[in-house]
Amino acid sequence: MKKSVYSICGMCTVRCPIRVETENNRVTWIEGNQHLLGGALCAKGSAGPALVADKERPGQPLIRDGARGSGRWKKVSWETALDYIAEKLKKIKAEHGAESVVLSTRGGPWQDFFKSFIHAFGSPNYTNHDSTCGRNTHHASLSVYGVGRKDYAYDIKNAKHLILFGRNMFSSLRIAENLQTLDMLDNGGRLTYVDVRQTITGLKSTRFLQVRPGTDYALALSMIHEVIKQKTYDKDFLDRYVTGFDELCTFIEPYTPAWAAKECGVREQAIKNFVAEIKEEMPKVIFHPGWNLSRYKDSFYASRALHILNVLMGNIEQKGGLLIPKGPGDCGKKGIQAINIAKPDIKRADGVGWKYKHFDKGPGLAHLFFNAMETEDPYPIKAWIAMRHDPFSCMPDPKKQEQHFDKLDLLVSVDTHYSEFGWYSDVILPECTYLERDSPICVQKGPKPRLAVRRKAVDPETDTKPAWQIFKSLADRLDMKDFFPYATMEEYWKWQLEPTGYTIKDFDDKGFVSLADNPVLFDPLQLDGKFKTPSGKIELISKKLTDAGLPSLKEYISPIKPPRGMFRLVYGRTAVHSHGHTTNNPLLNELMPKNSLWINIKSAERLGIAHGDLVDVVAEDESYCGTIHANVVEYIHPEAVFTLHGFGKEIPLQTRSFHAGISDQKLMINKLDDWDPAGGGINLCEAFVVVRRSVKNPQRRIEL
Ligand SMILES: Nc1nc2c(c(=O)[nH]1)N[C@H]1C(S)=C(S)[C@@H](COP(=O)(O)OP(=O)(O)OC[C@H]3O[C@@H](n4cnc5c(=O)[nH]c(N)nc54)[C@H](O)[C@@H]3O)O[C@H]1N2
Ligand SMILES: Nc1nc2c(c(=O)[nH]1)N[C@H]1C(S)=C(S)[C@@H](COP(=O)(O)OP(=O)(O)OC[C@H]3O[C@@H](n4cnc5c(=O)[nH]c(N)nc54)[C@H](O)[C@@H]3O)O[C@H]1N2
Ligand code: SF4
Ligand SMILES: [Mo]
């Protein structure tokens, strides 16, 4: 029988709206929701059916039957696996307290559900992936506006100029954002792109600025300098909403375009021309504050500088600028209900909220739990449940992480795949794929907010279950029956929608319920109350930072040059993979089976490396060496080498991705402790590697 269902893509965490066609419980077609994306879908989204059909995924619960990481598993029933975990958790709770259990997930609209589970269990220790993703930019946003990074939407379509610092948006995709950017370019808008290497985004840009790695802060400071010098700022906006402008003017004095030109390796005139251009275009100018711009020691300050540039443009709540996302209340509608159990009043083990008061308490900082594991301060950590999170891929130095995790009594992975962490854990609970499950209704805020829902397209063929059912079944065994008092998702949806007057049937026509016919805009002259800083103003000098003993306007410090014979390792994404969890997807693996090492042509010549040669990439302490092909190019800065994240996996049951390419996180030795005290993020781009021509080259073998 043929069916068509609107749903939400789950191949990455962008969650695009989709329509899925099925026939006899098989997915036959997926496209982007015509009403929102005009049918557009990315390569990963199109590979959803291959995910469902992939037999190299766990098809039933597994309990470890050998040493951790040995790959020996016992296939068990759900009853056995859940009983096993519940017994262990009860024992841990009795002996060490509920707070010794950590639950990590991938953030996003459904995180409250998992947060509620761990809170109901009695632990405050919910965390997520973000300390290696957008935490620095999030904290930068909080420090300037008092609201987080997701509390602004970018009206790119109506902008005249979009400026991206390492936001490689045509590889690191969000389809809606890409469509808007293409529209902006078609309408004559400009795109300025800053990176250490040329990319697809750079190729589409109107100005590409190649910088020395780690010097974004210098470039942004010089832009602020020139903007102030050329009086390219909105004085009314500053007078109305902003504090600290005078301090900024004094601070910025030495950071001239001429200075930045030397520091970053760009032309002074290019910076001046750029500022002259935006003078004509403001306020329809958007400085993207970065997404994963959390990689150098000063990326938090670089992001703050980009936020400050937006403030100078006076672009908030302006067409073509930064829009405050609207929720149901802003459209005169009632919001949905969602389960949200409060955090128990216990100190977090990562120190966030008490030791580190300037960080957002929500998910804390995942890497700071390792310290608690090591020192048992403020208390021991005994169990870690990773739900849609792979700490070994997400955080650097997995070997070091293993040593920490070895101290724990229970490691659980709730995953659609064997993750690197799952392979090392004690129990794997396989979730069915996004095409095989329903998920709670969520609010998608924006100028035109809507309610959206993921609906099951096909039934799982293997013995896998949706996460909500897994956690409910676990909660029932832990005497937490009130945690999720619903037997089915339909029941929960009904409860969620109660205040709104809508029913789930209202989602049938388009896959979502629109809460506004036209974009809702606030009056830009009436933004008081929208900034949640201590003063209620946009704070260029943040009180929170000052209280934490941190500067708001930090002196620029030049990044160190790589030690002799070494390169700075930088990483990123490709349009055809999502981190590490699609590299074994049969279709996507065919498109890109492994990564390569981008290296500057001059550096390569010096090392006797030709394009296509195999090269060894060696970690600082030589504990990891991966061999891949060299991609010798002119357009990467000579101090850096670049590789794609998500490869070099070591799970034998995933035959396509097994040892294919190299792992960037395994090259990031001792980086778990290298994090930014102001932004909270791990400094992933502060690792150096040795590169040499490999003896595994076929020609070299013949010579030998
Ligand atoms: N296809 C696809 N799309 C994705 C994802 C995915 O896995 N696959 N993941 C999503 C997620 S979770 C995130 S966080 C975003 C991340 O999206 P982005 O924030 O756009 O980040 P990346 O793709 O990691 O890489 C950004 C670029 O930073 C450059 N870079 C390195 N050093 C410097 C520097 O010093 N200065 C500058 N200006 N640039 C530098 C790298 O060369 C790289 O091109 O992508 C999202 N979109
Ligand atoms: N060295 C290095 N480190 C990085 C990065 C990098 O580029 N280089 N990128 C950083 C960034 S930006 C991010 S966002 C993080 C990402 O880090 P993670 O969030 O850990 O990575 P993902 O691969 O997106 O997903 C984690 C796990 O979720 C599983 N999964 C996928 N779909 C589902 C599902 O529907 N249900 C369940 N239960 N599980 C599912 C995957 O199989 C995978 O094992 O890594 C960060 N760390
Ligand atoms: S960007 Fe691609 S993979 Fe990600 S949600 Fe959208 S369609 Fe799916
Ligand atoms: Mo991310």
Which structural class is indicated by helix and strand composition?
A: alpha/beta
Count, helices: 25
Q: How would you sum up the global shape?
A: globular
Chain-averaged pLDDT: 96
- The N- and C-terminal alpha carbons lie at a distance of 62 Å
Q: How many independent structural domains?
A: 4
The top level CATH class name of the largest domain: Alpha Beta
Rounded to an integer, what's the Rg over CA atoms?
A: 25 Å
Residue windows where pLDDT falls under 50 for at least 5 positions: none
CATH architecture of the largest domain: 3-Layer(aba) Sandwich
Q: Summarize the main sheet.
A: 7 strands, mixed
Which cofactor or ligand species appear? ligand MGD, iron/sulfur cluster, molybdenum atom
The proportion of strand residues reads 15-25%
As laid out across the biggest beta sheet, the strand order is 5-4-17-16-15-6-7
